[in-house]
User: What shape does this take?
Amino acid sequence: MADPSTPRAPFAPWDRRELPGLFDVAESARRVGNYKWIEMRLFETLGGWVATIPELDVKMVLGRHCYHHAWHAELWHKRLPELREMNPDRLTQPANDEIVAFVDALREPEAPELTIEKLVGVYRVLAPRLVAAYTYHLNATSSITDAPTMRSLRFALQDEMDDWREGEMLLQSLIDTAEAVERAARRQAELETLMVRAGGVAGPGSLGITHDEEVAVG
Amino acid sequence: MRKIFPPNELARDERFVRTKIEDRVFDPRNAAMMERDLGSAKLEPSRPAAADRARSLMHGIFVGEIQALEGAGRTCFDFDEDDAPFALKLDMARQCWDESRHVEISVKLGEWMGSEIGEFTESTFLYEAACADDPVLRLCGVNRALEGLAIDVFNAMKEFGDVAGDPVLEFCEDWMLADEVTHVKMGSDWLRRLTEKDPERRNRALEFQRTVDKIFSLGGFRGESDENPVHLARKFRRMAGFDEAEMDDLVEISKQAQADAEAMAAAAAEGGGAYGA
Assistant: This one.
């Protein structure tokens, strides 16, 4: 048995985590506040849509996904005070006015024949953007100082990936004519344009690209 | 998407058939049905047509679960955080997932019992209780009254599964019963928290709950006598935050509902009723 008094390296050889990260406390908190805001709007929207959707399988899936996003919002809500924001509501904000416009457009469809439009907004536009923003945060932040945020990001990402796949499969089962293809593509283009104007769910820089580097859209 | 979504627009596929609850409770043929002496009305395998009654009840649970899912979802959407605190909305989202699972369970259990979607009708009275413009009223009407009834129904179905030798039915009802106790407790907790300093609002909410309870008693469907197919599950209701006085009150409400339904059915039968001249 090894002598317990023999000094060991503080980090095991396989532990390659690094101290530096791109975000300071304030920046990580700002992003987390944006995540909470968008996850809240998403779970409210999914909950509201359940009554408007005639397809029983879609109805049940949205009921389940509604809770996933509520749980993500709760994770971010609990993380904010740990990031020196004692009033979580202060940072529970949209990244900018453009993301508000996106959410307004996302939740607009109500009629029972608009299931494709509803699902495209969530699973072909917003969900991929959430995956992208969470992945960027996970890769960019300090893996030692911001580890609690990373843990929550991983939980959220697991749900996002699973839900994204499930939503996409529902869409593929619903899009069965040329006209439906056209509807889905049109809806995606409308919402994607709004999302590009917003710069992502955490605004410009959601993927690390700065304002100057972005291409103007619309 | 609008705030407050009307019950008559609840989206369904073509298998579903909608009826009004009052048409069923006040059906003039009920008077003649009540004259039959079939012994205890409790849901038991020995009762005539017990399997059909269980299937019908299971379908009622199925459509009730869909509406409970829709109601919880609407509460997530219809209110901003000034009216419904963040934590309440999180609870409602959690309930969405629970009700969604209950729909899944109900579909599979219905198939297991030999039924199919649309075999029986759907009335939207459950969702109507989820359309109140005050979240506290919704919590009383849906979580305490409706989910309270669900506790009674699931307990009755669980016992039926046990005595009928159907372990699948007993297993599923037991799981759903556990969730319903959670939902009723949620309603009891939020009622207390949101009306702590507003007794008038609390009274208004409890009055709404009584009204819903009377409708949900379905003219004698739930009570504590031999004439009631479903009995109050006092043990589980206690776990969910009901006190004895409330449960005694509920038994009285159920008796009144039964008397009202009998009188209405008799009057309808005397006058020729909906199917008469």
Chain B touches chain A at residues 1-2, 5, 9-13, 66, 69-70, 72-78, 86, 89-90, 92-94, 96-97, 99-101, 103-104, 107, 117, 127 (CB under 8 Å). Chain B has one domain: 47-270. Residues 198 and 265 of chain B are 40 Å apart (CA to CA).
